[in-house]
Design a protein that fits this description.
Elements lengths: L6 E6 L10 H4 L5 E6 L5 E6 L5 E4 L13 E6 L18 E9 L2 E4 L7 E5 H13 L15 E2 L10 E2 L9 H16 L4 H4 L1 E2 L9 E2 L6 E6 L2 E2 L4 E7 L9 E6 L4 E9 L5 E5 L4 E10 L2 E10 L14 E5 L4 E7 L6 E7 L5 E6 L6 E6 L6 E5 L7 E3 L9 E6 L6 E5 L4 E5 L7 E3 L2 E2 L5 E6 L5 E5 L4 E6 L4 E6 L5 E6 L5 E5 L4 E5 L15 E5 L3 E6 L5 E5 L4 E5 L5 E3 L1
Parallel strand pairs: 1-8, 14-20, 32-36
Antiparallel strand pairs: 1-4, 2-3, 2-5, 5-6, 6-7, 9-10, 11-12, 13-15, 15-18, 16-17, 16-19, 17-18, 19-20, 21-22, 22-23, 24-25, 25-26, 26-27, 28-29, 29-30, 30-31, 33-34, 34-35, 35-36, 37-38, 38-39, 39-40, 41-42, 42-43, 43-44
Helix pairs in contact: 2-3
């Protein structure tokens, strides 16, 4: 049942049409409008606005407004913080309000003495905030003197409503305009003006309001792993707007930082999209905003070439065919040398291994012998249990394997049958890939290049083949080698080939600028290893090479400095 105190009104958060953030779509429809007792802070009653921002506030028969008190009519809405759902965890809840008093049987507000309609907008919010902030200073403002001081719909230059304070010495119009601007700025940044706006301490007359910088944070990266030149999101709060205010840097292979291109920032300032730089490696991501630099989470550079045997700690994993194990080489405490221990045992002729597309700790190993199966194991647990991935009779003598990052398909080679195999993503069966063009001849190591082609160390043909998986056509990419055993690409896209009979590792360097289409230079000798076999270029810039003649393991840096570990 209606009471004499029921009132209608509208919420117009964007009366200057300057707000560009998600609040422009989010606060007026379905905002909660409440009547609040200013003295106690208690909510008397509340309702919701309709799709136009219009509301009707009803009261119980027991309510009688106190004509000696002041009240707020306030609209509030929890934002979605990019979640698609309002009132999301971590999202701000912007409020806009006006001041009211019940007098002479009617509600008087900042914009009217006699109207039966309540206006809640940026201008009423600015005056309300000024009254509240100045109440504890030497220059308080009597809110009752501001009732009816806003002339709704009568522009004052760039401002849609004229404000006429009764005492322009105590409250200059310029102060009001500045407050309106700051309210608009807060809303544009999806920040609650009531919460964030403060008085500038540098102004002794307390006529200057300001919007302090909000503490910004990075909660996590989405995804946490990506290849170079892909986009990832920094997810957090209070990022800069526009996107160019944010400076993001990744760790590079020299231990320094490299700047990233900031693509966009979400309307709620909680998601920053950036492009991973071409020279980025696994390491810390940094965000600089308003002259403050914040170290963020660790970014993990995804396996560019689909073949990886080095985990995030720098430990190297190896398949030992004769012992039926997967072993790990870990750096010994207080030494630059590595110790080797088995992490998976009881395998039947393991011939090839790599971490999966999901990365550490799941390592995949292809076994020949009687099993002819692909297994995976969680190597964060010792001893690790091997879980069967394929169910049919697979590869007799696996010699190379790599995951296609874009699809999740696993590719394997068999050096004795001269065959390329594929295990489709989600499948448990092994199928052959019928190639056209150049022939396989004792194929061994596999890696995917930056161009998306699959590269095969074709040891019997003394060459490296490039396979276009869209057509399954193979071409000779490099020739004149001596029993190439392994092939790998580093984070910059440079190619490495282990020349088993030539006692050397060759490199095909990238000569183009970072971020430009990759252009290669000439193939040349990079490092000397007695009988180099399998190899992997890790995410930090090191190349690891196994010597299958001496069972040694070598680490090579970007300057070709070689160390047996």
């Amino acid at each position: 049942q209606a009471t004499p105190y029921d009132i209608s009104g509208s919420v117009d958060f964007n009366d200057r049409r300057r707000v560009q953030a998600t609040i422009a779509d989010d606060i007026a429809p379905s905002a909660t409008v409440s009547l609040i007792d200013v003295a106690t802070g208690h909510t008397v009653t509340s309702t919701r606005t309709d799709s136009r921002g219009v509301f009707v506030l009803s009261f119980s028969n027991r309510f009688q407004p106190d004509p000696t008190k002041l009240y707020y009519f306030e609209a509030i809405k929890g934002l979605d913080a990019g979640s698609g759902k309002p009132n999301a965890i971590g999202a701000d809840a912007p409020r806009i309000r006006t001041i009211a008093q019940f007098k002479d049987g009617m509600w008087a507000t900042l914009s009217s003495l006699t109207s039966g309609r309540i206006d809640i907008n940026q201008t009423t919010t600015a005056l309300s905030i000024l009254v509240s902030l100045r109440s504890t200073t030497d220059y308080p403002i009597d809110a009752k003197t501001l009732l009816n001081s806003i002339q709704i719909g009568q522009p004052d230059g760039a401002y849609p409503h004229t404000v006429t304070p009764p005492d322009t010495t105590l409250l200059p119009v310029a102060t009001v305009h500045r407050a309106i601007d700051v309210v608009a700025d807060a809303l544009a940044r999806d920040r609650d003006p009531v919460r964030w706006i403060s008085l500038a301490t540098s102004d002794p007359l307390r006529n200057t309001v300001t919007l302090p910088d909000a503490p910004f944070s990075i909660a996590y990266l989405s995804p946490s792993s990506a290849v170079a030149l892909e986009n990832i999101d920094l997810v957090g709060s209070n990022f800069g707007y526009p996107a160019g205010e944010n400076q993001v840097a990744f760790t590079d292979s020299n231990g320094a930082t490299v700047s990233a291109n900031v693509v966009s920032v979400s309307g709620d300032l909680g998601r920053l999209t950036v492009k991973v730089p071409a020279t980025a490696v696994t390491g810390t991501v940094y965000l600089t905003l308003r002259d403050k630099t914040l170290p963020g989470p660790i970014f993990n550079l995804a396996i560019r070439d689909g073949h990886s045997v080095v985990d995030p700690s720098g430990y190297v994993y190896m398949a030992n065919r004769t012992m039926g194990t997967v072993s790990v080489a870990k750096k010994l405490a207080g030494s630059d040398r590595y110790g080797v221990s088995a992490v998976v045992t009881g395998l039947d002729n393991p011939g090839a291994l790599t971490f999966g597309r999901e990365g550490y700790p799941w390592i995949y190993v292809a076994c020949g012998g009687a099993a002819r199966k692909v297994y995976k194991a969680d190597v964060s647990v010792t001893p690790a249990s091997a879980v069967q991935v394929t169910t049919d009779t697979g590869v007799a003598n696996p010699s190379g394997m790599a995951f296609r990052y874009s699809t999740g398909d696993l590719y394997l080679t068999d050096r004795t049958t001269n065959t390329l195999y594929r295990v489709a993503s989600g499948s448990t069966t092994v199928g052959t890939v019928a190639l056209t063009g150049a022939s396989l001849n004792q194929p061994r190591g596999l890696s995917f290049g930056p161009d998306g082609r699959l590269y095969v160390a074709n040891s019997g043909g003394n060459n490296v083949l490039a396979v276009d998986l869209a057509t399954n056509n193979a071409v000779v990419y490099l020739s004149g080698l001596s029993t190439p055993w392994g092939v790998a690409f580093d984070t910059a896209g440079a190619m490495y080939v282990s020349n088993n009979a030539g006692n050397s590792v060759y490199r095909l360097p990238v000569t183009s600028a970072p971020g430009d289409p990759i252009v290669y230079g000439s193939l040349s000798s990079f490092a000397s290893i007695p009988t180099p076999g399998g190899m992997d270029a890790d995410a930090t810039g090191y190349l690891f090479v196994a010597d299958n003649g001496t069972n040694g393991l070598y680490r090579i840096n970007q300057q070709a400095e070689t160390q047996q570990i």
